[in-house]
């Protein structure tokens, strides 16, 4: 059947059913071609997605206009749900490629419509295929709600998944649902570890709660202004808590590198009964949905594009990194975030040393308590050579394990030398690992552009026990970058119903302290050009200021003060005004500790405890 015949439809006396199924076949064919395309190399596949969106727009519109005739002709509700599910799947895939919030919201609209209209309900207790479709739909919707941080819907979907899985076990062979039992366990673990308090405010950049980009202080020494355009997020730990392709660290980093939709704490509108939302202009359909109008702030730049890699092979990791660098514009910064366990070829006791240890690796549990990590980024901080000499750890062989071990030792590892070829573009590198210091050698060895580098500490401190609040999970270093004030409060051992009140008491103070720190940096005469050209980007600036707060906190904390293994590092060095021992940084921690009543847990200089002119310190 030709395209013209399809478009003319009934005008050409073609039965409605025949036109519909021809459109379904056409849509299925296009969907099968793009469903497994990679999320990187975005521009290469844009044309494919526009074509697929266009045919699904036509199909969805046709079935809406001819619903009665199609139902009379044998169309089942689950078949309508399948179309809606694929449209949602396409929108989520496009969000993953572009990071545009409108695609994620449209995905939510379609998935919510499938849920409320129960498209898969009829026959799913008799048909194993339909039951599997419902389970896959619930799992995908859960992922979307996690990314959107719609926790009420997450718990609603979790309950439905539990109930439906129990029903399936009673109705069908239990062996058919072993994998789904593991999926359910994963999401339950994930939600237990990701505390509600850490999500008390959006992790995304909010122009209501954070400094508006228009108000960011100008850096007088900046020769050029760069913007965060892309981010590659890669995380792997043994027995990590994860759901789908997301673990706690990557989910937090993903969210803190996006704009919070305008009108913070927005609610997605429920689609009307006449449809399940409209497409964006790129799909070829006219108009914009109510959700898009509500959440799109055209005064803000687009979200940085992000690629998330879960347990990738080294070759795949490097291929994705190379593709992103190839597409990076001249004024762009690529943020590379790696959270992984360390590995040393010279350490015979390393569980990663040989493939015969795979069984023992699987039995090991990652310390999901926050691992405390910190190193001085002041001008007096150690150099890479000094660190190697002091630690005598053979760091030339140290690397990061980004995937389960297969084959020869080290084949699943990323080395500092693997990153160097990509320093021909501007990199903002964040390494969260006990082997992070091995990546110090990148600084000064770049192939083109100097890299901005934030490195976690190499050792962790015990985390306080909680009585009424489950101990949070994931990396402390990452958690401070994503939710610094909440993490600060939890680390100091506060729990119970009063922690939200403590957060409200300190939130405005904390924001004002970070603003003051950012202004001091911007006005500093000895600010390295690497930092001056990135401080104008709101996302990178916020990460750097939170790093400074994290470093100051654990440089002053009694149990980690003066111990290099508990300190983070940043390269190149920051000005003295950002040193953890500077009066301004000490005051930042002291004022927060004073409000919380925990100043005795830190070591402050007398000058830091004196109020500045016009200020009073409340205890």
Strand runs, count: 10
What percentage of the residues does DSSP assign to strands (E)?
5-15%
What ranges have pLDDT less than 50 throughout 5 or more consecutive residues? 263-294, 353-397, 465-472
In DSSP terms (H or I, runs of 4 or more residues), the helix count works out at 22
Walkthrough of the structure:
- The protein has 22 helices and ten strands.
- The chain has about 625 residues and is of the alpha/beta class.
- Strands 1, 4, 5, 6, 7, 8, 9 and 10 form an eight-stranded mixed beta sheet that branches. A two-stranded antiparallel ribbon has the order 2-3.
- Strand 2 and strand 3 form a beta hairpin.
- Helix 3 packs antiparallel against helix 5 and helix 10 runs parallel beside helix 16.
Topology summary:
Blueprint: H1 3-8, H2 16-34, H3 46-65, H4 67-72, H5 77-98, H6 101-117, H7 128-148, H8 151-171, H9 178-193, E1 227-236, E2 242-243, E3 246-247, H10 248-256, H11 290-295, E4 305-310, H12 314-327, E5 332-344, H13 358-363, H14 384-391, E6 398-401, E7 413-414, H15 416-419, E8 427-432, E9 452-455, H16 476-482, H17 484-491, H18 499-523, H19 529-532, H20 538-556, E10 569-571, H21 583-596, H22 606-609
Helix pairs in contact: 2-3, 3-5, 5-6, 5-7, 6-7, 7-8, 8-9, 10-16, 16-17, 16-20, 17-18, 18-21, 20-21
């Amino acid at each position: 059947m030709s395209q013209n015949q399809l478009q003319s439809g009934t005008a050409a006396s073609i039965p409605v059913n025949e036109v519909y199924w021809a459109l379904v076949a056409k849509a299925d064919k296009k969907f099968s071609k793009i469903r497994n395309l990679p999320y990187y190399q975005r521009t290469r596949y844009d044309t494919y997605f526009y074509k697929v969106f266009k045919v699904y727009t036509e199909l969805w519109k046709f079935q809406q206009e001819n619903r009665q005739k199609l139902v009379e002709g044998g169309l089942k509700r689950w078949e309508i749900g399948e179309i809606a599910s694929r449209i949602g799947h396409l929108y989520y895939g496009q969000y993953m490629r572009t990071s545009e919030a409108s695609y994620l919201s449209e995905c939510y609209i379609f998935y919510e419509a499938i849920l409320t209209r129960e498209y898969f309900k009829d026959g799913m207790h008799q048909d194993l295929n339909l039951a599997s479709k419902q389970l896959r739909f619930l799992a995908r919707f859960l992922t979307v709600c996690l990314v959107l941080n719609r926790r009420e819907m997450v718990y609603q979907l979790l309950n439905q998944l539990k109930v439906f899985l129990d029903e399936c076990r009673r109705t069908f062979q239990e062996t058919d649902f072993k994998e789904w039992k593991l999926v359910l366990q994963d999401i339950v673990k994930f939600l237990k570890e990701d505390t509600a308090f850490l999500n008390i405010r959006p992790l995304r950049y909010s122009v209501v709660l954070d400094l508006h980009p228009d108000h960011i202080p100008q850096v007088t020494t900046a020769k050029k202004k760069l913007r965060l355009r892309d981010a590659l997020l890669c995380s792997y730990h043994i027995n990590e808590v994860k759901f789908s392709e997301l673990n706690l660290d990557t989910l937090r980093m993903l969210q803190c590198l996006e704009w919070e939709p305008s009108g913070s704490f927005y609610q997605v509108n429920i689609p009307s009964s006449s449809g399940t939302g409209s497409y964006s202009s790129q799909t070829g359909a006219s108009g914009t949905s109510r959700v898009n109008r509500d959440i799109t702030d055209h005064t803000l730049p687009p979200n940085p594009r992000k690629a998330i890699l879960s347990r990738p092979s080294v070759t795949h990791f490097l291929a994705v990194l190379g593709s992103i660098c190839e597409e990076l514009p001249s004024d762009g910064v690529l943020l590379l975030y790696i959270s992984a366990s360390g590995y040393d070829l010279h350490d015979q006791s390393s569980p990663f040393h040989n493939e015969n240890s795979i069984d023992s690796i699987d039995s090991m549990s990652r310390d999901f308590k926050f691992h405390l990590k910190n190193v001085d980024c002041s001008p007096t901080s150690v150099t890479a050579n000094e660190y190697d000499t002091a630690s005598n750890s053979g760091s030339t062989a140290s690397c990061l394990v980004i995937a389960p071990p297969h084959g020869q030792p080290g084949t699943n590892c990323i080395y500092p030398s693997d990153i160097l070829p990509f320093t021909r573009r501007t990199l903002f590198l964040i390494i969260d690992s006990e082997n992070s210091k091995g990546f110090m050698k990148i600084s000064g060895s770049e192939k083109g552009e100097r890299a901005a580098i934030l490195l976690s500490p190499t050792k962790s401190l015990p985390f306080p026990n909680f009585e009424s609040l489950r101990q949070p999970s994931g990396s402390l270093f990452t958690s401070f970058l994503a939710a610094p004030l909440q993490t600060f409060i939890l680390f100091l051992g506060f729990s119970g119903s009063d922690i939200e009140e403590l957060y409200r008491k300190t939130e405005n103070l904390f924001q004002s302290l970070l603003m003051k720190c950012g202004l001091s940096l911007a006005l500093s005469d000895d600010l390295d050009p690497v930092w001056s050209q990135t401080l104008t980007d709101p996302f990178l600036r916020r990460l750097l200021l939170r790093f400074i707060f994290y470093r100051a906190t654990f440089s002053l904390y009694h149990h980690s003060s003066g111990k290099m293994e508990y300190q983070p590092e940043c390269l190149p060095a920051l000005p003295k005004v950002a040193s953890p021992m500077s009066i301004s940084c000490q005051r930042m921690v002291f004022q927060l500790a004073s409000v919380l009543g925990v100043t005795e847990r830190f070591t402050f200089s007398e000058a830091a405890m004196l109020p500045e002119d016009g200020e009073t310190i409340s205890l």
